[in-house]
Structures are given as C-alpha cells and as structure tokens.
Task: inverse folding
C-alpha cells in the first residue's frame, strides 16, 4: 500500500466505494467498489482497477471495451471508508455508451421553484452531452446512432416531421401533446447540430448577439 495514503476502513467484504470523476471538470462518471488489491494496482499502474461484486473478481476499466481511464489522483474521504479516483477517460464510462453512468436525471419536487428556464437549460445540456456520446461511440441498436448513420438527409427529414407534429399539437390545443412533440423536435435538432459540429454555445452566442437591451 502507498505509504502516503491513510489506512482504508474496508467493509465486512473487504471493499470500499469508489467515486470515479473526470479530472477535467469533476463530473461523476461511475460509482463502483475496490478492495485492497484493486487500489494497490490502481496506484501502481495509474489505471482504474476495481472489484466487480457481480462477478467476484478484479477488473481493469477498458481492458475489453478500450474505454480506458488514466488515474491522475486518488483521494480518501475524512472517514477513510470511501475513495475518489480522478481520471482522464478515453471514451465513455458507462456500458450504455453514455459519458457517465449517471446520465438519467430525476426531477426534484422543488424544480418548480427554480428560475424560469433553468431546468430546461440543464435538461437540454445533459441531452446534448448524451447525443455527443452516441455520435462518438455509437451503441448497437441506438436510435440516435441510426440517425447519425443516415446523415443530414435522414435527420432533416425527421425534423420536418416533428415540426409538423408540433404545429398540429398547437392547433389541437393539447398542452401535453405540445410539450411531447416539442421535446421530440428539440432532440432531433440537437442531433442535427451534433452532426454538423455546432454546439449549444454557438447557438447561445448567436441568441445573445441578437438580444436587444431593455428600455
């Protein structure tokens, strides 16, 4: 064991939870477990080693998928019973192809108290990151991956269809349908932007440029 680290308080199974975070921005990628040997291998190799509770064996992240992680630091929490690996990932952390295993966001009851548009911006940002991950590492059977495979023509056709459905929902005065169809339209627009290498920040900058000062 590295002498620079305090003694770890392993649980009854000889394990400690490990939070794996992206060293560049602190985004949480995975929650997993390590035993003493996994930690020692991580410190010795600079590669993420963990313990699979389902398989009952050590595993080296990316050994089969190629989505390796270079560990830049290992930290221990104040109770010495949990670990934090800060890593530089080479590809998505999740087996689904998402950047993070925490790609699904659950709405809070307090969301209604947020400033207008804040929940929308957060959701769209998360969706855009998922779309980018699908483009970079297309999972088998993914609808998003199929859209990218079809190129601009296929994506643009879907945008035309979804835009029509938004108009129909509005004319039907059906609020729930309008929300649903608008979400579909926004999703396909995000796919088109990703296909053409346009970021949300690019669009945001243009909106800011157009904004007129209030009186």
Result:
């Amino acid at each position: 064991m590295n002498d620079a680290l305090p003694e770890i308080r392993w649980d009854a199974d000889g394990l400690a939870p490990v939070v794996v975070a992206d060293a560049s921005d602190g985004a949480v990628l995975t929650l997993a477990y390590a035993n003493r040997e996994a930690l020692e291998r991580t410190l010795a190799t600079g590669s993420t080693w963990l313990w699979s509770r389902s398989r009952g064996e050590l595993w080296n992240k990316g050994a089969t998928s190629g989505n390796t992680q270079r560990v830049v630091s290992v930290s221990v929490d104040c109770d010495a019973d949990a670990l934090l690996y800060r890593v530089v990932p080479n590809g998505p952390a999740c087996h689904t192809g998402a950047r993070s295993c925490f790609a699904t966001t659950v709405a809070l009851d307090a969301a209604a108290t947020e400033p207008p548009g804040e929940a929308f911006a957060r959701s769209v940002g998360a969706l855009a990151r998922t779309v980018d991950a699908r483009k970079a590492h297309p999972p088998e059977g993914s609808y998003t991956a199929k859209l990218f495979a079809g190129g601009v023509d296929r994506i643009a056709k879907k945008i035309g269809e979804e835009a029509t459905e938004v108009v129909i929902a509005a004319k039907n005065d059906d609020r729930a349908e309008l929300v649903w169809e608008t979400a579909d339209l926004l999703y396909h627009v995000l796919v088109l932007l990703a296909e053409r290498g346009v970021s949300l920040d690019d669009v945001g900058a243009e909106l800011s440029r157009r904004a007129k000062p209030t009186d």
About this structure: The chain has two domains: 16-89, 109-210. The mean pLDDT is 90. The beta strands are 16-22, 28-34, 49-52, 57-60, 69-76, 83-89. DSSP finds five helices and six strands in the chain.
